Amino acid sequence: MKVDRNGHRPGAGGWQLWSLPGRALALILAVDLLAIGVAVVTATSLTVAGTQWWWFAALVCGSVAHLEIARSIERRREQSSKGVPYTNLKSLWVFAAVLLVPLPLVVVLTAVSYGYCWARVYGPSVAHRKAYSAATFVLASAAASVVLHAGGLDQVPRLPKSAVSLLVIAAAAAIWWLVNYALVVFAIVLSSADASLRRALGDPADQLVVAAALGLGVTVAALLVTMPWALPAPMVAVLAVHRDLLLPQYLRAARTDAKTGLAAATFWTEVVNAELDRARLAGTSVGVIFLDLDRFKRINDTHGHPAGDEAIRAVADTVRGEVRGADLVSRWGGDELAIVLPGLGRAQLHAVAERIRLRLAATPITLTRTKSGTAQVLPGVATSMGLASFPGDGVDADQLVLAADSALLDAKRNGRNQSVSATRR
């Protein structure tokens, strides 16, 4: 019998469902069962008019055609979105269905969409994740239907015919997004001891994809009822959104360190060069901090490398919380981080470095993936830092990196757990 790296046995058919933590397993099973219950209960009173069947068929065809055309992009994105919400445009067709057909047909459309993706887009995948994603769509659609009903839009098609009805539909779309997003985030957080809420929330800008999809869903529904011959126009917009919003998400993932969610070193260097160009034009400063965990090898030797990875992730989260939105934190390599801080001179840079160092020393870190199998708490971690700033310590990225790294070595040689500024040339 095979076991996973946590010592759990996989379920039937190789599913990893049964190896999940108890809280995650309970959430997934509850959501799946609730979605099934919604489908069964609503199907008992199903009545579908002839026109609604045509609308449903058009939505199914549109959804399948969209997925087929964009499947190469979707496959790459799905492979690169581990540990964060996976945004896609399936919600476009599903929300259009919420406005045009009874809820049981919305459930069928969701099943068709995910079933087609299983066969043509995702390929071999973890079954319970896709089943859960489909279930979140069903519950989100049910919640949106309740909002539409409460707003007086009882009969399909539920299209905006006044300012009030438009507000009701907007509220239903917001509820659809909130239910789906919340369920996905909860599942990510509960499924892994390594997951942090901040990472599980993903990039807020990615939610623009969902907003665009829901808005296009309203447009598709309106055109399908009033001018079905004009449907190719929004299809072009759908593919444009897919290419211009979703593919860059994949490109951003390539610039991110997989273990920490920080910027990759190559991307960080690109940003430093861009900030230096701005600073030269504006006559301002650019600060760079290199941060290294003191005696990190002891954590790996005592608790194991998985616990060491947890410690690095915790440090990364703490450092990100101590810098501004304009600053960029990178994992430079191993247990070393690099930070670029535009606009900060030597004195300000030292103040920021000391604040980060003291915060890391005072922030407990819980290690759950230890060699002993029992959780251990580090009272904090000591760090050494090397600081350099433009233009005094270097005029390009290579010079700043060299100056900051030399200052970091000085901090190590001088006793560790301190911030040292580069020696002026």
From TrEMBL:
Residues covered by the GGDEF domain: 284-424
Q: Which SUPFAM superfamilies match?
A: Nucleotide cyclase (SSF55073)
Nucleotidyltransferase is among the record's keywords:
yes
Q: Where is the signal peptide?
A: none
UniProt xrefs under PANTHER family: DIGUANYLATE CYCLASE DGCM-RELATED (PTHR45138:SF9), REGULATORY COMPONENTS OF SENSORY TRANSDUCTION SYSTEM (PTHR45138)
| Protein name in the entry | Diguanylate cyclase
Protein EC: 2.7.7.65
The Gene Ontology terms for molecular function here are: diguanylate cyclase activity
Where, by residue number, does the polypeptide cross the bilayer? 24-46, 91-112, 132-151, 163-188, 208-231
Which InterPro entries does the UniProt entry name for this protein? Diguanylate_Cyclase (IPR050469), GGDEF_dom (IPR000160), Nucleotide_cyclase (IPR029787), Rev_trsase/Diguanyl_cyclase (IPR043128)
Is Iron given among the entry's keywords? no
User: Where does this protein come from, organism-wise?
Assistant: Amycolatopsis samaneae
Query: What keywords would UniProt list here?
Result: Membrane, Nucleotidyltransferase, Transferase, Transmembrane, Transmembrane helix
